[in-house]
Structures are given as structure tokens and as C-alpha cells.
Specification:
Blueprint lengths: L1 E10 L2 E11 L3 E7 L5 H8 L7 E6 L2 E2 L8 E4 L11 H11 L4 H14 L15 H13 L5 E5 L7 H16 L3 E5 L3 H7 L2 E6 L2 E7 H7 L3 E8 L2 H5 L4 E6 L4 E5 L5 H8 L3 E9 L3 H14 L1
Parallel strand pairs: 3-8, 3-9, 6-7, 7-8
Antiparallel strand pairs: 1-2, 1-4, 4-5, 9-10, 11-13, 11-14, 12-13
Length: about 300
């Protein structure tokens, strides 16, 4: 288990992380989310020991993280951290050796991952000759080459097309099944919603929302009603409890304050013609994220 306990970080007088606490169990994927400058990268760097905390504690399996256990950690940074004049093989060997691995083992695993990511022909190519997407694949390989107990991924899907995003997710799920602890950040809420177990949302270094996605959606009272049919949007807007009505080429989306207004919307819709869809859904994680972040900035 990774435990972050009442961690605070100051840069001079600037408060970057404010009394942050969370736990991530073995075999769990955890999302650390927030807008730019929210404190995510600072938190990642404190977890792996690159930055000292101003106060609080961080432990992995009840042990402080230091040189005795850093070989169990993999970290993919948001910024490119590859040496572009090295070949792919040279780059991965360097990272593997830093993690205490033997060169023979590194090369065996490198060949496996190059095959898995469909880039085996780039083994002897220099990093600078690769596309941004393939550089991201190499950076991911350097993070997982040591089969880490704790895997930290800061915006791992940068530069990837949907096919390769799905491939990364597949690998992350495999590490989860092996019992790895995975923490990642992403600005794409649909990715978080797709495979994340629990999350925390940071605003100005402070947690504003925390827990399982399922419980967060359950506690968030607002609902969305999707309608296809000949319904006048003005009639929908006049219903008590309706927050917003959106209309696109496919459907009408009615946003309501809570589920108690569903029947009121249905009463209007049932008298309309050609109704082929009336579906109530929880709001997306993206909507909840924007709402919670907006509330803090409005205060």
C-alpha cells in the first residue's frame, strides 16, 4: 500500500500542496487529477523522493521511500525525459541499470515490449528519429522495464492515437492484476472514468473531491436526461429543477438538479410526438470535475 499522510509542500512562501492525504492499495489504479498548477507533479515528485516534503509522510508498504526501495518504482514524467542522441536500446539499458537490473534481463524485456508496442524495428534507432508517439512508447517502456511495485504515470497518453491509448490501458490493467500500485494523471476524464478505481481532485494544492468514482457519481445529485423526439426545448427549460437544456444533431440533453425532477420532465415529454429515447444517466466525470473546480475558483 502507498500512504500519503497529511503532506504539505511549500516553495518558499508559495503553498504548492496543502495537507494532502490518500491511500492506494495493491492492485489499484488511482487518479490524481487537477488543472495545470494544481500540485499533481509536485506530489508525484515527493512520492518518489525527488522533492522533500515540508511536513507529513509518505510510505510504501509502511516503509519510507528512499534508495532502499526506489528500484520498485517506475515513473513516466509529463515532460520528455529521453536522451535523444541515444539509441532506443542504449536508453532502456541505462534506465534498467539504474533500477539494479542486469543487461541481459533488460534486453530480454526490451525485446518483449518493443514487440508488444509494434516498434521492434526501432531497437537500434536514435530517439530523435522517432515520432512523438513512439518516443512516448519508449518512455513508457523505461518506466515499466523493472516491473515496478509502484508505477506513476504523469499524462501517459500524450501524443498517442486511440489505438495506442487502448494498448497502454491494456498494459496498465495487466500490472494492476499483478498487484502493482498505479497512480496517474490525465486531462482526459474519459480515460480516468474508463479504468480508474479511486481518485482525488486537487485545486491549488488542496483536495476538493476524493473517493471511488462510483460513490462520487452517486453522491453528485445532478442527472442528465437524454431525449430523442419532437420536444420543444422551451417547454423543457420552463420545468422546475431543470438547470440547462442542450440540443445537438443527435439528441436533447436535459440537466436537472436531482432525480426528483425526472417525473416532471417525463410528464412534458410523454405528450410529445415521435419519442424514441428517454434515458437518465449520471453526469460524466468531466462535468463533475468542472463543477468542483469551478466552485473553488468562484469562492
Amino acid at each position: 500500500m502507498l500512504k500519503v499522510d497529511n503532506v504539505t509542500k511549500y516553495y518558499g512562501e508559495n503553498l504548492a500542496v496543502d495537507n494532502l492525504s490518500f491511500e492506494v492499495n495493491n492492485g489499484e489504479i488511482f487518479g490524481l487529477l487537477g488543472v495545470n498548477g494544481a500540485g499533481k507533479t509536485t506530489t508525484f515528485r515527493m512520492i518518489i523522493g525527488l522533492l522533500e516534503m515540508s511536513s507529513g509522510s509518505i510510505t510504501l508498504d509502511d516503509q519510507p521511500i528512499n534508495y532502499s526501495n526506489t528500484n520498485q518504482i517506475g515513473f513516466l514524467t509529463e515532460e520528455r525525459s529521453l536522451l535523444t542522441k541515444l539509441t532506443v536500446k542504449e536508453q532502456v539499458i541505462m534506465y534498467g541499470i539504474l533500477k539494479g537490473m542486469k543487461e541481459k534481463e533488460i534486453l530480454e524485456k526490451l525485446d518483449y515490449w518493443l514487440e508488444r508496442f509494434h516498434i521492434k524495428e526501432y531497437r537500434e534507432r536514435k530517439i530523435k528519429e522517432l515520432s512523438k508517439g513512439n518516443q512516448q512508447k519508449i518512455q513508457f517502456i523505461t518506466a515499466i522495464i523493472n516491473e515496478p511495485k509502484l508505477l506513476i504515470l504523469d499524462e501517459p497518453f500524450t501524443g498517442l492515437d486511440p489505438i495506442n491509448v487502448a494498448l497502454f490501458v491494456e498494459v496498465m490493467k495487466e500490472f494492476k492484476e499483478k498487484g502493482s500500485i498505479i497512480i496517474f494523471s490525465s486531462h482526459r476524464m474519459e480515460h480516468v472514468e474508463m479504468f480508474c478505481d479511486n481518485l482525488v481532485i486537487l485545486v491549488k494544492g488542496k483536495s476538493v473531491l476524493q473517493g471511488s468514482i462510483k460513490e462520487i457519481k452517486k453522491e453528485y445529485r445532478k442527472k442528465n436526461i437524454h431525449i430523442i423526439g419532437d420536444v420543444k426545448t422551451e417547454d423543457l427549460k420552463n420545468i422546475k429543477g431543470v438547470v440547462e437544456v442542450e440540443e445537438n444533431a443527435m439528441e436533447i440533453i436535459v440537466k436537472i438538479e436531482s432525480e426528483k425532477y425526472i417525473d416532471d420532465v417525463f410528464e412534458v415529454v410523454k405528450n410529445s410526438k415521435n419519442i424514441i429515447k428517454f434515458m437518465v444517466e449520471d453526469p460524466s466525470l468531466n462535468e463533475i470535475f468542472l463543477n468542483k473546480v469551478g466552485e473553488v475558483y468562484e469562492d
